[in-house]
What does this fold into?
Amino acid sequence: LRALYWAEIHMREAQDACLHVLQLGNISQELSHALFTGIVVGYARPFGANQGRPALEAAFKTFPTAKAQRLHDGLLEARNLIYAHNDRVTVPTSLNPSVSAAQMNEIEIQIEPSGSSNWLIRRPTLGTSHVEPIGALCEFQIERLNKTSTAILQEFLRRFVIFQHRIPKRQRCHLHNLLMCFAQGVFLELA
It folds into this structure.
């Protein structure tokens, strides 16, 4: 249940960053890369193995349309090759990044008459055309994560109520306290 709640948090972070990119409009390469790092890593985080928290189950890695599946797979590829690591050999192919393999290794240097220099490294990045589809994919994931976590919690509560009726009244208070501790632990972790 905690993995689902944390996954929903990360999806909301990625979705909020998408909205921010759309509001900013034209931005520098550096800011664009920083914001897309947040979007892609935030989206991908729940799908990797994390210490103390398992990766999301396979149901959250499959999608009803081929387009959504390609976007999901592309985001995970972009996380591994562009945003969480600095792979200079493998060019991501899923989301058609803006830079070719040859351009990835070029450094453009401009030397001013004063002797100062500026340089530019082209690196693969996602474009603003990806922002709205990524935001929509996050929304889809948020909805199904919430639906799944709600169903699990409702089933837990249903079983608790059935179990509570089978025990002596003097022990019910203890079980009620146990349930309250469980509920507070879940909700405090989200706060």
About this structure: The mean pLDDT is 80. The first helix runs from residue 2 to 24.
